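I have been asked to look over a protein record a colleague put together. This is what I was given:
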Amino acid sequence: MRLVVFDVDGTLVDSQAHILAAMAQAFGGLGLAAPDRAAVLEIVGLSLPQAMARLVPALSAPERDQLVAGYKDAYSGMRAQTLSPLYPGAAAMLEALARDPSLHLGIATGKSRRGLLHLMAAHGWEGRFVTMQVADDHPSKPHPSMLQACLRETGIAPQHAVMVGDTVYDMEMARAAGLHGVGVSWGYHHASRLGPRVIDRFEALPAELADIWDERAA
């Protein structure tokens, strides 16, 4: 068996509009100017406490905790009203990979469990992923804890597993856990930062996976 683990925001789901709006509401609630778009997208993928610490290192810990709470409340409200769209080809790609009896699919995301379960239900993905790791249970990316848990839960060795993501945190996490990383060019960090394996469309992923595992078998 082999394992393909996906990041969510910026990889499968284009949640940029919700992220930026929730960040603006959280900062506005404390009377602060929101960070610009580039600064916010740079921290996507980190767990919220670490993200806020990078965005506003001069704030006190209690103030950053207020930002985290404000962001969660704002994002939850937006999520209840509108669903962030999937990137083109995401649904078809997951369906195709799920039909391969030699593959397991997993998730490693900075989302909360509540947010991820909402997304799974909205897209009819219950049962699609055999392992789902969230920010509630692990240190923030790029710590390898999420991927190590994926490997433990599936019993799959790291050489038979691949991480697919859009940020440097995903790629660093993959390296730290001994997995190959595959970057996607449409996400929140520039493709040039993601290493040698980057795809420009989901239709290219099966061939990239085959190339990785052919190399490892050689």
Q: What stands out?
A: The first helix runs from residue 16 to 29. The first strand starts at residue 2 and ends at 6. Strands lie at 2-6, 103-108, 131-133, 161-165, 180-184, 198-199.
